[in-house]
């Protein structure tokens, strides 16, 4: 039968749409209202000190729109005007300095795309499959194009002669919010690729991501990407602050804990099909897609299994992998309507292969909380519905 | 190479912001505090979230206990069982606590609170005094419980190379299902439409004042929820509080002081709220609310307007 959407004149084809400026700053159309950040209420005591999740199951490409990029606050997202913003550099520098926001915009600046992943991403899955959706298992991640000034440039402006031998020096970075979220970063990293960023995806940072200025620490755990950054102190050693001792340390099976676990290991996940993105079209052509990333360099290859890891096929990368940035992969198959156990396995330029859950547990036990980069399994049923499972 | 941007930071500016304390005690201001003083300060400023004995309220952190649990299935990580350096506790309390009123403590109060946390962990007796001279020497039980990241040696060296592509295992059985636990939040569609027309009494409220009050309410949020879906936390739900008799929120355990005043007919009208929020402990001796009060008249008017705007 002929499709009335084609054979009959539709209102949008005869009437008029919105004029320009209907929404001077646009929002997604109402039909996309389910593509939103979501919170898991039982995880934390209060949303002020909590985290939510990027709807990665509903996004494509690699750039995360700011409006649905996950948030993590320790004392809430604060209001800080550019006019009230100050950045102090002190400690073992030749001249302790204070910069205004306007000062930062006068330094030569750079643009880089980087992922920011919370160390606790996938952390609820250590003991077993728990949350049913890629958003909840892998959504503590976003990937944006940052504009900012290399921290190196700012440190050089203050002068590092006073610090002497730089090889054993550290910088302590803290935010302007009540949590201050201080972290110690070795000088080698500080002088390498760390950015003092004020734009993301071309526009000002969102309040929830540290407006007006945040730190970008490529490849390293999100907690170090201090938001509302207000002070950078060159020091002889690490402060061993709350966020680098009592939190963001990884407890092993024997009760000892790893500290300074900064890099995010290579990881990947199939974002669709997945529990929140079931197959609705039945048999035939199916696009299997997902994301891969590594804090130790570029993704070089992603393999996908449809049978729970028995057999693997190499997926197509949408673009060659870039260092410390999300890589999109696709595997285009002809689905016969059979049940699938979907997995993806990333490799990075160091030759590292993303491990299985069993491999990780063998080394780390079940209590690490952080840095769970295991291979994820989605059980796709003939109906097209999918579930988060573990397989032998 | 030098661009000449920025200006020199003044010593008093550096002193105002550079407050971090290192494990060797660098950064500690002079001062001291004892366990018994700490117990009082803790009850006043910390117990509403962390419990009178540092045992934690609801999901808020437990600060005591957990000895010998680090190798268990569900380790309890507290200052006593897990933290490697006492400087960290001092630094964090000093810069980031109390939650919602950070950087309000005097150094002696911080020494006292940290002394009390040690006491609650059975690490010192009740005559213990902590000071800038003794803090760095104090060794916590798990000081040696940490190793520097060794993933490159223990993991990366093993998990490299060409991975298996075909017939990699014999059988694939489901060993665990997320559906069994069923802890995933319900998927909701579009956020609900804005509320319908506001109730009559709200018409008299100044929207700007209500908005200002919502900002002031941030000071209260750590303990109080308000509006749709609000739940009792360490403080009761405040929806519809203005004009209601005191002590009426279901399921909330009020202090003896409040219960008594409620029995004597206390109603939270604008005047009583104003007096209570200006000086909680003067208006209600023995209140559980650990809040020092709103000093500005503007804030008091704004918060009252905001609370009024969120009616039942």
CATH superfamily of the largest domain in chain B: Cytochrome c-like domain
Major sheet strand order of chain B: 2-3
Please mark out the parts of chain B with pLDDT under 50 across 5 or more consecutive residues, or reply none: 189-203
Distance between the termini of chain A: 48 Å
When the domains of chain B are counted, the total is 2
Shape of chain A: globular
Total number of β-strand segments of chain A? 24
CATH architectural type of the largest domain in chain B: Orthogonal Bundle
Number of domains of chain A: 2
Task: Give a description of the structure.
The complex is a heterodimer of chains A (392) and B (312). Chain A has 392 residues and is mostly beta strands. Chain A has two domains: 73-256, Oxidoreductase, molybdopterin-binding domain (Sulfite Oxidase, Chain A, domain 2, Alpha-Beta Complex); 267-389, Sandwich (Immunoglobulin-like). In chain A, 9% of the residues lie in helices and 32% in strands. Chain A is built from seven helices and 24 strands. Chain A has helices at 4-7, 11-14, 101-104, 134-138, 151-158, 187-190, 357-364, and strands at 38-39, 50-53, 72-73, 86-91, 97-100, 110-117, 141-150, 170-175, 183-186, 195-200, 203-204, 214-216, 229-235, 250-251, 257-259, 267-272, 284-293, 299-305, 313-314, 316-317, 327-335, 340-348, 377-380, 386-391. Chain A has a five-stranded mixed β-sheet. In chain A, strands 6, 7, 10, 11 and 12 form a five-stranded antiparallel β-sheet that branches. In chain A, 55% of the residues are buried. The model of chain A has no long low-confidence stretch (mean pLDDT 97). By secondary structure, chain B is mostly helical. Chain B folds into two domains: 20-137, Cytochrome Bc1 Complex, Chain D, domain 2 (Orthogonal Bundle), CATH 1.10.760; 201-309, Orthogonal Bundle (Cytochrome Bc1 Complex, Chain D, domain 2), CATH 1.10.760. Chain B has helices spanning 11-17, 35-45, 47-50, 86-96, 107-120, 151-156, 178-181, 207-216, 256-263, 270-278, 280-283, 297-309; strands at residues 7-8, 32-34, 129-131, 146-148, 174-177. Chain B has a two-stranded antiparallel sheet with strand order 2-3. The model of chain B is unreliable at 189-203 (pLDDT under 50). The chains are: A mainly beta (392), B mainly alpha (312).
């Amino acid at each position: 039968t002929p499709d009335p959407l084609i054979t009959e004149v539709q209102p949008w084809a005869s009437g008029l749409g919105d004029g320009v400026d209907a929404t001077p700053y646009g929002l997604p159309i109402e039909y996309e209202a389910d593509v939103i950040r979501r919170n898991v209420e039982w995880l934390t005591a209060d949303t002020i000190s909590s985290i939510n999740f990027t709807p990665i199951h509903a996004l494509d490409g690699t750039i995360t729109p700011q409006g649905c990029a996950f948030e993590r606050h320790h004392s809430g997202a604060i209001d800080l005007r550019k006019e009230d913003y100050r950045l102090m550099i002190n400690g073992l520098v030749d001249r302790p300095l204070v910069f205004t926001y306007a000062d930062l915009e006068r330094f030569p600046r750079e643009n880089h795309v980087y992922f920011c992943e919370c160390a606790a991403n996938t952390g609820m899955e250590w003991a077993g499959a728990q949350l049913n959706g890629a958003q909840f298992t892998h959504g503590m991640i976003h990937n944006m194009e940052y504009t900012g000034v290399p921290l190196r440039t700012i440190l050089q402006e203050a002068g590092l002669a006073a610090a002497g031998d730089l090889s054993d020096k550290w910088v302590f970075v803290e935010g302007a919010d009540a949590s201050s979220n201080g972290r110690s970063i070795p000088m080698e990293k500080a002088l390498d690729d760390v950015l003092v960023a004020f734009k993301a995806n071309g526009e000002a940072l969102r309040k929830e991501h540290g407006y007006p200025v945040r730190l970008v620490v490529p490849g390293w755990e999100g907690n170090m990407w201090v938001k509302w950054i207000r002070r950078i102190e060159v020091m002889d050693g690490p402060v061993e602050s709350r966020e680098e001792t009592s939190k963001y340390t990884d407890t092993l099976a024997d009760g000892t804990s790893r500290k300074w676990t900064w890099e995010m290991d290579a990881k990947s996940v199939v974002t669709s099909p997945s529990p929140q993105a079931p197959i609705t079209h039945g048999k035939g052509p199916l696009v299997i897609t997902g994301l891969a990333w590594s804090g130790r360099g570029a993704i070089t290859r992603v393999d996908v299994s449809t049978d729970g890891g028995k057999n693997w096929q190499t997926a197509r990368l949408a673009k060659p992998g870039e260092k410390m940035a999300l890589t999109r992969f696709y595997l285009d198959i002809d689905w016969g309507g059979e049940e699938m156990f979907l997995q993806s396995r990333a490799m990075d330029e160091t030759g590292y292969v993303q491990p299985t859950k069993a491999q990780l547990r063998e080394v780390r036990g079940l209590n690490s909380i952080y840095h769970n980069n295991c291979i994820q399994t989605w059980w796709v049923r003939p109906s097209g519905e999918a579930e988060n499972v573990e397989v032998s | 190479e030098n661009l000449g941007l920025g200006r020199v930071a003044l010593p008093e500016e550096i002193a105002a912001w550079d407050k971090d304390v290192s494990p060797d005690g660098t950064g500690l201001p002079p001062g001291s505090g004892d366990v018994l003083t700490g117990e009082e300060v803790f009850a006043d400023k910390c117990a509403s979230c962390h419990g009178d004995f540092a045992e934690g309220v609801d999901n808020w952190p437990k600060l005591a206990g957990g000895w010998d649990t680090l190798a268990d299935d569900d380790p309890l990580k507290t200052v006593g069982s897990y933290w490697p350096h006492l400087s960290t506790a001092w630094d964090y309390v000093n810069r980031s606590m109390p939650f919602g009123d950070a950087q309000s403590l005097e150094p002696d109060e911080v020494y006292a609170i940290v002394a009390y946390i040690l006491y609650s962990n059975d690490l010192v007796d009740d005559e213990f005094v902590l000071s800038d001279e003794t803090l760095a020497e104090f060794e916590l039980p798990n000081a040696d419980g940490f190793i520097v990241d060794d993933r490159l040696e223990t993991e990366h060296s093993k998990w490299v190379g060409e991975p298996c592509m075909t017939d990699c295992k014999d059988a694939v059985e489901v060993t665990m299902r997320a559906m069994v636990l069923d802890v995933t939040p319900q998927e909701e569609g579009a956020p609900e439409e804005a509320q319908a027309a506001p109730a009559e009494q709200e018409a008299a409220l100044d929207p700007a004042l209500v908005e200002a009050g919502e900002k002031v309410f941030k000071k209260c949020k750590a303990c109080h929820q308000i509006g749709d879906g609000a739940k009792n936390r360490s403080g009761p739900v405040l929806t519809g509080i203005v004009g209601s008799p005191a002590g009426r929120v279901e399921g909330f355990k009020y202090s003896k002081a409040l219960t008594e005043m409620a029995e004597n007919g206390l109603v939270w009208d604008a005047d009583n709220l104003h007096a209570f929020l200006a000086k909680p402990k003067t208006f209600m001796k023995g209140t559980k609310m650990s809040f020092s009060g709103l000093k500005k008249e503007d804030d008091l008017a704004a918060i009252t307007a905001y609370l009024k705007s969120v009616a039942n």
